[in-house]
Amino acid sequence: MASPRLRSPFNYYLLDIAVHDFLTGAIDLPYYAVFTYYGYWPLSDTHCTIWMWFDYCVDIIRLWGLVGVLVDCLWAVVWPLSYRLHNTLKKSYVIIISGWFVTYASMLPGFIYTRTHFANQSINRTCL
């Protein structure tokens, strides 16, 4: 975002969603294509763990990005004077980072437990 006119708080929400879409396309979808093409999981447990992490977390973080956009738009429509005076990049950063933090903090314990206890797909060649 080289131009200073593009550095509005709303555009950072859109950038956050674009990053999530890029991560989905670059990391999540190639693994899904391999799994769909072969009909079983031909890769290692590590690749399965990476795929599951991005499959779960990136989609939920994208939803938090959409919630940030919706809250920003609601604030702009319902309280326009307050929005112009108090909407800053710092508040946008806090909302975006809190979405990432809430997702990781809520998903990580269950994900670690599941991957350590139920993630041996080498026997039946699945990735669940």
UniProtKB/TrEMBL annotation:
SUPFAM superfamilies: Family A G protein-coupled receptor-like
Protein location: Cell membrane
Single Gene Ontology MF annotation: G protein-coupled acetylcholine receptor activity
InterPro entries for the chain: GPCR_Rhodpsn, GPCR_Rhodpsn_7TM
GO cellular component: dendrite; plasma membrane; synapse
Gene3D superfamilies for the chain: Rhodopsin 7-helix transmembrane proteins
Transmembrane regions listed in the UniProt entry: 12-40, 60-81, 93-113
Primary localisation category: membrane
Membrane topology term: Multi-pass membrane protein
PROSITE patterns associated with the record: G_PROTEIN_RECEP_F1_2
The keyword Cell division appears for this protein: no
GO biological-process terms attached to the record: adenylate cyclase-inhibiting G protein-coupled acetylcholine receptor signaling pathway; G protein-coupled receptor signaling pathway, coupled to cyclic nucleotide second messenger
Keywords: Cell membrane, G-protein coupled receptor, Membrane, Receptor, Transducer, Transmembrane, Transmembrane helix
Domain G-protein coupled receptors family 1 profile: 1-128
Name this protein carries in UniProt: G-protein coupled receptors family 1 profile domain-containing protein
Organism expressing this protein natively: Ramazzottius varieornatus
Lineage: Eukaryota, Metazoa, Ecdysozoa, Tardigrada, Eutardigrada
